[in-house]
Design a protein that fits this description.
Layout (H helix, E strand, L loop, with lengths): L6 H21 L1 H11 L4 H29 L1 H18 L6 H18 L2 H11 L4 H30 L1 H14 L1
Helix pairs in contact: 1-6, 1-7, 1-8, 2-3, 2-7, 3-4, 3-5, 4-5, 4-8, 6-7, 7-8
């Protein structure tokens, strides 16, 4: 006798993997600081300002993402955000100036981070889980930590082996595929 997996568990798995990918890329920023400083002849403060801008855009996007989810639905916002994140990350491969990273990572990628965040995943999970809502939300939140645990060291390894440009192609391709 076979038991079918309830669709709620599929939603939970997709939410976990999406948060892992998006927030893992977001938290991998530190791995790119030294290569970006060197390649763009920029100071640590200038490169750090990209992260500062990213956090502002992310924070400001959260209420907007919530409103967009209410209007257009979780699926459209989540998928669009992952595509935006993936494409912007891939496009950073072509950056020739630090201002391009400010735009691509600090603004565009951060809009993707905002839409593929805990807000979206939490709405999806609470919609599908009633009895085991605490467990489901805990699993989604674990995606943040898992993303850091997996993608930050992977980014450092990939940068040391292949350089930062190839690493952003791989990260962007992985995010876009989710």
């Amino acid at each position: 006798m076979s038991r079918r997996i309830h669709y709620a568990w599929v939603i939970l798995a997709v939410s976990f993997i999406g948060v892992l990918a998006a927030q893992g890329v977001r938290y991998s920023f530190g791995a790119f600081m030294d290569p970006w400083e060197q390649d763009f002849a920029s100071s640590r403060g200038t490169v750090s300002a990209i992260s500062f801008l990213s956090f502002i855009v992310f924070a400001l996007s959260q209420p907007i993402v919530g409103k967009l989810i209410d209007r257009f639905g979780i699926r459209l916002i989540f998928l669009s955000s992952m595509i935006i994140l993936g494409v912007a990350t891939i496009l950073s491969f072509f950056a020739t100036s630090i201002w391009q990273l400010f735009f691509l990572y600090g603004i565009i990628s951060s809009l993707g981070f905002g839409g593929a965040s805990g807000v979206t995943a939490s709405v999806a999970v609470t919609k599908w889980f009633h009895k085991r809502q605490g467990l489901a939300l805990g699993i989604v939140e674990a995606g943040f930590g898992a993303g850091q645990m997996v993608l930050v060291p992977s980014s450092l390894l990939l940068i040391s082996q292949f350089g930062w440009r190839m690493t952003v192609l791989l990260l962007g391709g992985g995010a876009k595929e989710k």
